[in-house]
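User: I'm writing a short methods note and want a consistent example. For Ubiquitin carboxyl-terminal hydrolase, I'll paste the sequence; you return only the structure tokens, no commentary, since I'll be parsing the reply automatically.
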Amino acid sequence: MQRAALFRAGDAQMAAGDLGELLVPYMPTIRVPKSGDRVYKTECAFSYDSPDSEGGLYVCMNTFLGFGREHMERHYRKTGQCVYLHLKRHVRQKVPGASGGALPKRRNAKLFLDLEISSDLNSDDFEYEDEAKLVLFPDHYEISLPNIEELPALVTIACDALLSAKSPYRKQEPDSWEEELQASKHAKTLVQLDNGVRIPPSGWKCCRCDLRENLWLNLTDGSVLCGKWFFDGSGGNGHATEHYRETGYPLAVKLGTITPDGADVYSFDEEEPVLDPHIAKHLAHFGIDMLQMQVTENGLRDNDIKPRVSEWEVIQEAGVKLKPMYGPGYTGMKNLGNSCYLNAVMQAIFSIPEFQRAYVGNLPRIFDYSPLDPTQDFNTQMAKLGHGLLSGQYSKPPMKSELIEQVMKEEHKLQHNGISPRMFKAFISKGHPEFSSNRQQDAQEFFLHLINLVERNPVGSENPSDVFRFLVEERTQCCQSRKVRYTERVDYIMQLPVAMEAATNKDELIAYELKRREAEAARRPLPELVRAKIPFSACLQAFSEPSNVEDFWSSALQAKSAGVKTSRFASFPEYLVVQIKKFTFGLDWIPKKLDVSIDMPDFLDISHLRARGLQPGEEELPDIAPPIVIPDDPKDHMANHFVESLDIDESSVMQLAEMGFPLEACRKAVYYTGNLGAEVAFNWIIAHMEEPDFAEPLVIPAFGEVASSGAAALGAVGLDNQPPEEMVAIIISMGFQRNLAIQALKATNNNLERALEWIFSHPDPEEESDPALDTMDMENNANANILSETGSEGPRIKDGPGRYELFGFISHMGTSTMSGHYVCHLRKEGRWVIYNDLRVCASERPPKDLGYIYFYHRIPS
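Assistant:
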């Protein structure tokens, strides 16, 4: 549409009265942002356009949502809102002075937009100017700002309030987002001593004690010192703080957090974590190359002298010149501060065609039917992220030198390489105590959290998460009676134990351990690392072997007995996700990681793990639940009985904790599911991960609450004859319909284990429709008007052959899930590609033996 009028300084302008008249019809729709209003002035709700983009950003003066040029019309059609604030940042090259240097800026333009300065541009050579103007739809009238004398007071106040509003991602309440880090006042003027200190890439130790964890590098003199002791068991003796008090050297960086995209920096003077915009230069002073993670001294690199064995170097393919990749499917993601776990998982997810079709293929429909606030809709944000990664719009190769020279004469146009998933992370982590923080998280735990959200927000007739779902057959045998019970459960990940006892280089490991201890005792440099080499076949064998069932109650004996359990695949998924259980707990209960090399196969055949069901000659255990003894005197005996019945199966707790879940959440999961095993407790965790008190300590009810609480835990019928909502949620999280879950629990007197058996033994249950429940479910779906019923009762599975081919893996660097860095390798167009946050390059040496989570695709028969 051609613009009807354009108001700019120096042009013939409307009289003040005329502008007032022009805005009168729109005044009721113009709002002044209040405390608590989220103002999105840096990012489009449907794309990754920003004021830096060529078309700028349009912010609605009523909803305060931001929209790129191509999505602005959609919001106008949907809401009828006509007044928008158009924001644009211009980047221009400075005019060189007579001496050849750049002249200082002559404009008095103010940088009023809360945007980051592009790291690709040298601020000494470029100048920035922010522009704001009101735009009236549908005629595209533009009114330049500031225009205080001619605009009504309400409009001026609303514009000023919007421009000065803080980021919507800043912390608003105690359980919300953490404060965004601010640049340290010492970063620009930091003095670094020229004392010749060089920091090795590994083997660090506090220079005042023997601690080797939670170490901080002082950026002034290069001292490596331990931090404070923390409640979670990590920390040190406080020597880093003590050093600051003695010297006044203000900044330190945590060793082990340095990645190509930044590091954790703390300011002792400002007493808070900070950003250091010059961190790369400050680290280079001590020989640390952020990009390569290796020491450079006298022009020689460590890998020129000896083989590199550090997992940080091997996994990131440091020291190898990697060719950057651009275009659709090769878009990087910015690290928002320990958000690499999210970046790695989402790159893998959107390499799968089913997810591409569900979200990017349905993008127009999802966007058109999105709620009035699309920033709070899961499917909209998934479609936005998928389009950002797959469109190629934000992954363009650098311009040729002659074009750059031509463009620079007029105005610099920013190249949009990579996206910042800030809006996506803010939404999917909302209310979650771990993912809503800026702390490092477990990629496997986030993967399950994402699948849970996908399950709860269907996008069409087929749910893309179905490609991961499979059925596991559990065969439990009473060792005394030899009778068996077969049950099935839903799972999304095959967890492989690390068979350390099967290492093929045991002699080398023993020799290395002796040398390491000698070096530590003599305070010499540590020997070259020797990593345990584990055959994949040994891990697969350990997975298939029977395991003991703790506290097993035999229905054949009507008493506790020894029991063993064996797991097999009742169905094989379309995409098999394999997790190597590298994380475990040390004697001090601090999570540790097993540094091992496993020869993961490119082609995997697990057909021999197919479940066979009840075999000839096997006798089933009677379908009898353990007896519940209710004492005569509830005041004297109920408390004791309740406490006894609340014995928590610590083996199940540890099994869940090893997956990366918070310890207290694992205890609650085992407790609330009546010690029915880690599998059932795992599904409880998936159903409750978003609750604010998810990781809070378990609170046992008071004796007065014992009867009701205990009954709920043990599956008694409620007063309204409805099953406990927690049990319903557990079954729904396994992929079953809500009506079927309620029907199964009612039929089995709310016994969770028997309810699952009932579901599998009733493939075609009678329909039982509850209009109130149907209405509730529809209201809970943001895109309810574009959903269609799946029509199937029971778990949705895509069974097929058990032969697979590797197409991706996620690797972790660091000592535990609470620290370190994640990267993702994916096989695309016949070659491997490494996704390391914003850096996307062709992989030369994909470290397939060091991965943490592997993605396999089924080979068609």
